[in-house]
Amino acid sequence: PSSKVADSVQDVWSIFTPLAAETKAINLGQGFMNFNPPQFVEMAAQEALTRNDCNQYSPPKGRPRLRQALAKSYGPLFNRDLDVETEIMVSAGANEGMFSVFAAFLDEGSEVILMEPFFDQYISNITMNGGKPVFVPLRAPAKAATSNISAHEWRLDVDELESKITPKTKIIVLNTPHNPIGKVFDEDELKAIGEVAKKHNLLILSDEVYDRLYFAPAEHKRIATLPGLWERTITVGSGGKSFGTTGWRIGWLIGPANLIKYALSAQTRVVFCVNSPCQEAIAVGLEHCIEQPYFEEQIQAYTKKRDILTSVFEELSLPYTVPDGSYFVLVNTSKVSFPADYPFPPVLDTRGKDFKTCYWLAKEIGVCAIPPSEFYSPENRSLGENFARFAFCKTDEVLEQAVENLRKLK
Ligand code: GLN
């Protein structure tokens, strides 16, 4: 195989998603919902399947109805009239949208700044396009080892970020709300990152797929709305995260025409166009949410889910980061002990302690989580070893069951 894929044959998802199925553990691993999308979205998809125009190719940049709905829904959030022809591109999931951005702007050896921990897909998206990831850490305060902290306490040192810039740097990737920390970057942090991007003439790829999931008092701010940053920012969004349709693969990019056109040119060569009936259904979903408080209600539902799950970590005195957004909780598992002679499969031999902890939790405790050392560069992998990431995009009943199972750790 090509070196582009050889190292990523067995990623964390291909180990833990089958493990959850095989052990029948409550799956709080990969971030997908165990409930259906809202009725208005589900019905719209069914209706779309009956229409000829929705069963054929769409324009490569996306169906007009979806681009219009995106412009209407996001225009006020970006404080501008979004041009449906040139400033919006519908992608085959946020992931493919990001892949297309890297394909469009990276040359062999171009560098991309990532904050650690990071969503692991960024790495292959960058390297498959000839780029090189360069890392800068988000750091938790020392007290995080013994007490709960707010996601906001994970900090970026902007001088350190700037020190990583070379003549080859092209893009800074920002992820807010952040997976796996749940950090929602505040305006001052975004401004400081933006200043660095301006000073060194860099693009910003802002992965905001959890933009509809933030918890009061945190508020989601968009870096593209800060002075002088629209011109250099591509913002990524996700129908899957917004409406509980992660398998539909509908995402989007929003940004200036002179950037979007190159991402579109890459996307056209990768997938040509995106799933038509599902685009139509997401368009209907966004139209509905312009009139109805669906996203506000969803935030309330998720706040409750977060609180159900985190209550057990309180009971167990396992310190965790209280997420301000996204649907993940990062828990310090250093106190969780498993037998040294436990029969772990050979695939875990080369992995960090967190892979063993999560394997054991799935097998013996009946809850599957994701080991976050996968979200660090090889040099910093040990920083993730004392943590597990739990997803709470599940029904309250399933979360209660997970709480019940986790009580076995007492
Ligand atoms: N974004 C989701 C997560 O972090 C799904 C990841 C994936 O399937 N690659 O869990």
Q: Any descriptors?
A:
single chain; 410 residues; alpha/beta; Aspartate Aminotransferase, domain 1; Aspartate Aminotransferase, domain 2; 2 domains; 14 helices; binds glutamine
Q: How would you summarize this macromolecular structure in one to three sentences?
A:
The chain is an alpha/beta fold and 410 residues long. Helices cover 39% and strands 15% of the residues.
Notes on the structure:
This is Aminotransferase class I/classII large domain-containing protein. The protein has 410 residues and is an alpha/beta fold. Helices cover 39% and strands 15% of the residues. It has helices at 3-6, 12-23, 39-48, 64-78, 93-105, 121-127, 158-163, 187-199, 239-243, 257-270, 276-291, 294-315, 353-365, 396-406; strands at residues 26-27, 88-91, 111-116, 132-139, 149-150, 155-156, 169-175, 203-207, 233-238, 251-254, 320-322, 328-332, 367-368, 387-391. The strands form 3 sheets. An 8-stranded mixed sheet has the order 2-10-9-8-7-3-4-6, with helices on both faces. A 4-stranded mixed sheet has the order 5-11-12-14. Strands 1-13 form a two-stranded parallel ribbon. β11 and β12 form a beta hairpin. The longest helix has 22 residues, at 294-315. The protein starts with a helix and ends with a helix. The model has no long low-confidence stretch (mean pLDDT 97). Glutamine (GLN) binds at residues 13, 30-31, 119, 121, 179.
